[in-house]
Structures are given as C-alpha cells and as structure tokens.
Design brief:
Length: 120
C-alpha cells in the first residue's frame, strides 16, 4: 500500500503543476480537466493513507500528526490551485503546500519506516 500512496501523491504534485501550467496559458478547459483528475487522485491518496494508518497503530501520536499534516497538504494543494485559477493571491497557499509537503515527506520516510525503506 505504501507504493500506491507514494505514487498517488507524486501524481498529485505533477497534476498541481499541470493545473497551474494550463491556467497560466489560458487553457481553462485543460485546467479544469486536470483539476478534476487531481480531485479524483485525492481520493486515492486518502484511501491508501487510511490503509497505511491502520498498519501504523503502534506509532501513537506521531501517526495522528502525520495524518493531520497529510490533510493539510491536500487542502493547501486544492486552495493553491483554486486561487491560482481564479487569479487571486495564492502565495500563502503555495508556502503552506511547500511546508506541509516537506513535513509529510520527512515524517513518512524518516520516522514511519514501515513503508518502502529497508528496515534499520
């Protein structure tokens, strides 16, 4: 399940780039389609993350924090895309996306090692 989760969030980050590229070039239809695909990918992230959550029961509060940071990352992705498409200030959402994404990746790979990394 870790591979599915990692693949889905890598696709999500690529889709965020695609949404902003289409929006910047004025291709509203392409931006809308890629944004809807991104929203479907959120469901895949939530499903695989929920499955991983069940397998990390022995981590206690750390896994709860990781879930909250993951939800924060998804919210920041969505808000950054929406604000960017509407041509409204989105810098705070981009900053939150970078911060939350970095924290989620550090927690996932650095502290919750039951995923794809070899055992220590």
């Amino acid at each position: 399940m870790a591979h599915l989760h990692i693949t889905s969030w890598v696709i999500a980050f690529a889709l965020v780039g695609l949404v902003t590229t289409f929006a910047r070039s004025g291709n509203d239809k392409g931006a809308k389609i890629s944004h809807m695909i991104l929203r479907a990918d959120y469901l895949l992230i939530l499903y695989s993350g929920g499955s991983l959550f069940a397998s990390y029961a022995n981590y206690g509060g750390l896994i709860i924090f990781k879930v909250l940071v993951g939800l924060w990352t998804i919210a920041a992705m969505e808000m950054a895309c929406v604000k960017y498409k509407k041509k409204k200030p989105a810098a705070i959402w981009w900053a939150q996306l970078l911060i939350a994404g970095a924290i989620a990746i550090i927690l996932g790979f650095g502290f919750l090692g039951a995923g794809i990394l070899p055992a220590k």
